[in-house]
């Protein structure tokens, strides 16, 4: 099975009040943490769907990181662009640029459980999270999305989505406000002590 990772990073983060994906966490932009998580997945390449002007960094080694620039805030446009670029893959992991703490081992667990299913998702305390692994069977449905819809609307209607129950609540944590970055930094300091 060939898999690709898609990192969605084209939004402008109006709730954050400034350039969220460039905000610093542990000395580097928030987006870099998401790209690193995507590179840890069992993938042949990583596609970062980014807005024009966003610093996406320089990545060497494998898997390769490709930058796809789009000028749209709509979640569906980002997702459709990433899936179109991954069209030759058997599946695509979807990572969000504002989720810096996704456990790096989770993607491999999803790849192990998906089998012939439409998609695989991690679940903690009964709630699904990220990353999501879409099989290529889902790609045509993603192409039909519009507006600010993500894959969630499609996945909720399916009975052939499998779940990996995990113990890490980080599959739910996204950065929406500047205070979230402060909370993450203090949590990490506490974990080290």
Descriptive overview:
The protein has 193 residues and is of the alpha/beta class. 27% of the residues lie in helices and 24% in strands. It contains six helices and ten strands. It has helices at 30-39, 75-85, 106-113, 139-143, 152-155, 178-192; strands at residues 3-9, 24-25, 28-29, 45-50, 64-69, 91-96, 119-124, 127-128, 132-135, 161-165. The strands form two sheets. Strands 1, 4, 5, 6, 7, 8, 9 and 10 form an eight-stranded mixed beta sheet that branches. β7 (119-124) and β8 form a beta hairpin. The chain is globular. The model has no long low-confidence stretch (mean pLDDT 91).
Notable traits:
two-stranded antiparallel sheet, 6 helices, single chain, 193 residues, alpha/beta, 8-stranded mixed sheet
């Amino acid at each position: 099975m060939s898999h690709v990772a898609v990192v969605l990073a084209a939004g402008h983060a109006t709730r954050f009040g400034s350039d969220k994906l460039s905000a610093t966490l542990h000395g580097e932009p928030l987006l870099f943490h998401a790209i690193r998580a995507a590179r840890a997945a069992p993938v042949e390449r990583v596609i970062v769907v980014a807005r024009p002007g966003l610093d996406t960094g320089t990545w060497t080694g494998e898997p390769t990181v490709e930058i796809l620039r789009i000028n749209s805030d709509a979640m569906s446009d980002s997702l459709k662009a990433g899936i179109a670029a991954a069209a030759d893959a058997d599946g695509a992991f979807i990572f969000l640029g504002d989720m810096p703490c996704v456990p790096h081992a989770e993607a491999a667990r999803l790849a192990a459980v998906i089998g012939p299913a439409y998609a695989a998702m991690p679940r903690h305390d009964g709630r699904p999270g990220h990353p999501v692994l879409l099989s290529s069977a889902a790609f045509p449905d993603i192409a039909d999305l519009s507006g600010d819809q993500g894959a969630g609307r499609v996945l909720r209607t399916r009975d052939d989505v499998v779940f990996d129950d995990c113990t890490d609540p980080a599959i739910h944590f996204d950065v929406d406000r500047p205070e979230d970055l402060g909370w993450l930094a203090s949590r990490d300091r506490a974990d080290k002590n």
